[in-house]
Amino acid sequence: MEIMFFVSMFALLAYVTYRNVQLISRYRHNKEYIECYKQMLNQSESAYERTCNYIANEKSEEFRNKGRVLKLYQQLGRNEDCTDTLEALDFREIFYRKGKYSKQQLLMSSDIFVWIYLVLARARKLSKFDVLNGVYDKFIELDQMNNRVEYQLTKAIYNALCEKEDAGVEFLSSLLDGGFASYEYEKSLIGLFKRFAAATLAYSGEPMEDYYKEDLHGFAATQIGKAYMNDLEIFEKYLPKTETESEDPLKENEEK
């Protein structure tokens, strides 16, 4: 009995040690990635060069591909040819492990959806349909994620931007109405996902509750909201009433 206890304790200790090593390793990769997207949103003059250097020097394919999403967004703004970046982009390197979809990987990389939504909006504004369709086609292949809010929101935003099917209205509206209980999602970001849904409905001219119309002024006060709503060309309609400042742009939008 004592032997089994010590074996169990040893196994637990080994697992905890392994997870700590993993987290420390991710932190090293993640630190520069976070600085890249902060500079990107701040429109720093060195943001693009820093992102390119990050991709060139990063050893992890997961983070190299996350960097490529940031690079696409900036290349669109610089009116550069995105062909090579788009061809190199591989979402499986972000969401898969050992050739299989990993829910754990998705949870650790859930922020990437924010930058995907920004890329889609900017590509549509600039009529860069090769980028808009290219990013979407690569992403939509990962249908193992179809039970996730993040995946369904990507589809809905794309359909709205392309004015396809119901323009994503059904899912976008249901998300605001709380109809996402049957889906899995990153709880810390659900407030931000709702804001993306509301902004996209506003872009499409669809009705929504006054609460969400009013909240769009709050979204516009954040770096992410301003970037997204500028590219949807609705920012002037929902000018911020107060300025929001945060060390982490993602935390600006956390649901209270």
Features of this protein?
mainly alpha; 65% helix; two-stranded antiparallel sheet; 256 residues; 13 helices; 2 strands; single chain
Question: Which regions have little confidence, pLDDT < 50, spanning 5+ residues?
Answer: 4-24
For the secondary structure, the number of strands is 2
Main sheet summary: 2 strands, antiparallel
Question: How are the strands of the largest sheet arranged?
Answer: 1-2
What would the average pLDDT be, to the nearest integer?
88
Number of separate helices: 13
What's the end-to-end separation, in Å?
Answer: 48 Å
Order of helices and strands: HHHHHEEHHHHHHHH
What's the Cα radius of gyration? Answer: 19 Å
Tell me the strand percentage band. Answer: under 5%
Give the % helix. Answer: 55-70%
Structure, explained:
This protein starts with a helix and ends in a 25-residue tail after the last helix. The protein has a two-stranded antiparallel sheet. 65% of the residues lie in helices and 2% in strands. It has helices spanning 2-41, 47-57, 61-77, 83-88, 92-95, 103-108, 112-125, 129-140, 149-162, 169-176, 190-204, 210-220, 223-231; strands at residues 96-97, 100-101. The protein is mainly α and 256 residues long. A hairpin with a 2-residue loop joins strand 1 and strand 2 (100-101). Helix 2 (47-57) packs antiparallel against helix 3 (61-77). It contains 13 helices and 2 strands, in the order αααααββαααααααα. Residues 4-24 have low confidence and may be disordered.
